[in-house]
Design brief:
Strand content: 25-35%
Order of helices and strands: EEHHEEEHEHHEEHHEHEEEHEEEEEEE
Bound molecules: zinc ion
Largest sheet: 8 strands, mixed
Helix content: 25-40%
Radius of gyration: 22 Å
Mean pLDDT: 92
Shape: globular
Number of helices: 9
Amino acid sequence: MPIFAIPLLLAAAAAAPVAADPAAAAPVVTRLPAPSAPRLKADVTAMVGFGTRHTASTTTDPRRGIGAARTWAARRFTEIGATCGGCITVERIARNFTGVRAPTGVVVEDVLGIQRGRDPNRVVIIGAHIDSRVTDVMNAVSDAPGANDNASGVALVLEAARLLSQRQFDATIVYAVFSGEEQGLWGAELLADTAKARGWQVSAMLNNDIVGNTVGQGGIRVADKVRVFSEGIRASEDLVAQQARRAEGGEDDGPSRALAKSIDDIARGIPGGLDVMIDRRPDRFGRGGDHEPFLKLGYPAVRFSVAAENWDRQHQDLRTEKGVVFGDTIEGMDFPYLAKVTAINVATLVRIASAPAAPDDVSIAGALSRDTSVKWTAVPGAAGYRVRWRRNDMATWTDTRDVTGTETETVLVQVPVDDTFVGVSALSAGGAESLVTFGGRERRR
Ligand SMILES: [Zn+2]
């Protein structure tokens, strides 16, 4: 059953109230290639084959340890790049980190596959950590297969690279394989710092961590959902900015939440796909992940994770106790499910890498009036803009108006500002939509 032939709704070409030409209102459908469950399984199997991928494990053994695993990942990017005339540049970045989980220091290295877009500076990042662990986070020698946590995420990133390398995008896509996650999110911190140092304009960061099982703790099976975690109050904003957000009611519409909502929208267009659960937290309760260093620097970032985690199969020494099997082995995984999570990631990359950047700033006004006026900053390369709004008691956008050309303001008649949330996205000529920037009060510059 070809459930992964994805008709991606890039955009409703004319969502304006009046669409005289019905053809103009037809969605732009782009067929995307299907993720391959056997391909994903082959990559997870290869990673499990390195015995352990603990960050402090051997880097000199050609068959075992984190060094061999990273070299393998670099080779996979090179192989994929070879099929598209070298469209993927492989880069390895490294830094020494010290902390409670590496008291004498450890060199953390990330393997990057960079697919240059028409704009080398605007970047979409998809990443996953390759390091693994057992019960004792300091144990760098015991077998730690890390099949689901997180060979699943790395296989997804490689599959996305394989599928998208045949196409040219507006934005540059950075496929990232992190190390040092279990010791302190260090590989992600390294790439976030690198993005800032290089002046990248990061439109989105997708972190995939534990994305390949459907049987959760106690045997519960959830095969039709995936969780997408996003922050509400922004880690990167100071108290003054947070107070402004509070006054505007913008807690549910920051860039990271906008990304999660966009992913939910994209996933709905994939037949036979998964229901996205917009988890309104930065990560699981009291836990963290590789998207967080990006959030700290103000980049929109989310974490994908399975709907039902199985803690007997995470961070465990391989053993059987009273008939219960512990350990993160490949038997606990579901590859057709992982392929579906991959399909959502791929479709998200396509949309965001095809769209212009989101508007930097959107402001609304209309106090003591029945109408709301909306203004936004122009986005280079945008063919138009989509104004979205909803009543304050709704969680997702309900109304849209497309504005073509270079207009950067409009008035919503009989839409009272007090009871309405408004946002604006930028559109490409092909109809691909950026993330939605939430409208607040006009900022003094
Ligand atoms: Zn993990």
